[in-house]
Amino acid sequence: MKIIIAQDYQELSERASQIVIGLLANKPDATLGLATGSTPVGLYQKLIEKYKKQVISFEKVKTFNLDEYCELAQEHPQSYYSYMHHQLFNHIDITEENINIPRGIGDELTLLCREYNEKLKAATIDLQVLGIGNNGHIGFNEPGTSFDQETFIVELTPETREANKRFFNSIDEVPRYAITMGIKNIIAANKILLLASGVAKAPAIKELIYGKINEKTPASILKKHPDVTVVLDREAASMIK
Ligand code: F6R
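Above: the input record for the complex with fructose -6-phosphate. Below: its predicted structure, written as tokens.
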């Protein structure tokens, strides 16, 4: 696992964007796995800047998002569909048919999981961007999830709902369920780029780096992956030597 410690969030975002840009320079039709949440916002801003300066194009890029809330319509401002369009897709030249975001609404959730899983299996993700939960989750694979898990419907832990309530008016509005790539799907990516910013992430990062590979810390599986880069700011790195 390669660890990069940036001075601050700006530098973290710049370093992460350089990794994505490096990939796209070599492979303009790359498939990217994308995350939502606060952490990758700066990365997406840098990618938009580089697109506007014509350093990169997303014309041939395909994307697969990690997860989506259940119970929220796509057009809900807090759906991950809205997030991705607002934070990245509306500002670059990606084509809508190359965007894959799981759908978490409807009567046929099991079927939606199976369909997304089949799409993932038919694809090869060149680079998967990840954040990490305060509890060590990746995607919405909460502590205790099997490392063999594929795309599924997860009941979010109270801790994750609490952490995400900042995006909603109240905790009651935070969805209880989400559809997420499983850990098995995530680690099938050729390369993984995990980003963490802020002191709240420091214990999860410490556990990732020094802890044992253990289903209680979903991110710990990344130690088995041959090509993982972790980019941290100083606060997220504050519990590692
Ligand atoms: C988001 C996702 C989550 C987040 C994690 C960190 O698609 O899958 O695992 O990456 O919860 O969220 P932030 O970045 O908001 O701290």
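Notes for the reader.
Helices lie at 9-26, 41-52, 80-87, 109-122, 158-164, 183-186, 202-210.
The chain is about 30% helix and 15% strand.
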